[in-house]
Every structure is written in C-alpha cells, then in structure tokens.
Amino acid sequence: MAPLEQDVLTVREQLFHERVRECIICALLFASLYILCHFIITHFKKHTDFTAVHDDEDAAVNKIALELCTFTLAVALGAVLLLPFSIISNEVLLSFPQNYYIQWLNGSLIHGLWNLVFLFSNMSLVFLMPFAYFFTESEGFAGSKKGIMARVYETSVVLLLLTLLVLGMVWVASAIVGNNAASRQSLY
C-alpha cells in the first residue's frame, strides 16, 4: 500500500475506534443509570393488588409501565448529572492534557452524551410517559379481543387523538397571536 493510503486507513481506523469507544461508554453509563433507577423505583413502588390474583395481562402491563418509567427516570438522572460530568471532565482534561488514560474524555463524547440526553428526554416527555399512563388505564376497545395488543392499539389511538388535539390548539393559538393577516384568514 502507498503511504497515503496507509495514512487514510489509519485515520479511518482511529475514527472508527473513537466512535465505538463513545458508543460503549454511553451504553455503559446508561445501563448503570437504568439499573440504579430500577432499584430506586422498585424500592418505592407499592405492591399492586391484582398481581397477587395472578392476572397475567395486568401484571404484564404493569411491568411494561415500570420499564418505561425506569427508562424515563434514567434519562432524567442522566440529564441532571450531565452538567457536573461535563464540568469535571473538562477540568480533568485541562489538568492532565497528555495523559493517555484520560483521553477518552474528549469533546466528542460529551457532545454525544448531550445529544442523546436531549433526544431521549424529549422522547420520554412526549411519547413514553403519556404512553405508560394511557397504557395502564386502557382496557382495549369495546368488542375487541382482550390482551396486550388491544391495549396497545387503544393507547396508540388515544395518543394520536391527543396529539391532534394539541396540534390543533397550537395552530389556533398561533393564528390568534400572529400579527399578520394570513394567519387570521387561515383561522376564519
């Protein structure tokens, strides 16, 4: 191989290894936060009455809702701890700029963590928590077979209708508040 091709290959390998390292670190951090949040939620969670009756469907629904709430709490805890983690990692990098064992705390890792926390916190707030609430409250549509999928269908329809309602209210509010004639005309 030519030296130029070898340099391009080593740069590509280096970028690949940095990306894999960032993915592994993010996965390990989130897994540890998820396990910690699972222990916290199960410690404070009340024992439900219908799990003792051996109702498998309600137990499965509660388990799914518990996992969604655990995910959301892990994301929230990650969002709270991300700023101190960013500050501490910056100070460590400034204190030991040439240390080989500290170089994994680079700016790309911190930016990736910020992006993931922003994405997952929005997803949790908009989709997962309303889904968990409506999922525990649903029973399936009248006349349909009972089961988990009937509850999922009802929850999805309720979330879709809620989304349409919120979007409609935002559209009306923006047309009322807007100062141009086109927005008021679209409202009429």
UniProtKB/TrEMBL annotation:
The gene behind this protein is: Lmbr1l_1
Q: Which domain of life is it from?
A: Eukaryota
How does this chain sit within the bilayer?
A: Multi-pass membrane protein
Q: What InterPro entries does UniProt report for this protein, alphabetically?
A: LIMR, LMBR1-like_membr_prot
Localization per Swiss-Prot or TrEMBL? Cell membrane; Endoplasmic reticulum membrane
Pfam families, per database record: LMBR1
Q: Under which name does UniProt file this protein? A: LMBRL protein
Q: Which organism is it from?
A: Horornis vulcanius
A single BP term in Gene Ontology: Wnt signaling pathway
Gene Ontology CC: one annotated term: endoplasmic reticulum membrane
TM annotation in the entry: 23-44, 64-88, 109-135, 155-178
Q: What keywords would UniProt list here? A: Cell membrane, Endocytosis, Endoplasmic reticulum, Membrane, Receptor, Transmembrane, Transmembrane helix, Wnt signaling pathway
Single GO term (MF)? transmembrane signaling receptor activity
Task: State the family named in the UniProt similarity comment for this chain.
Answer: Belongs to the LIMR family.
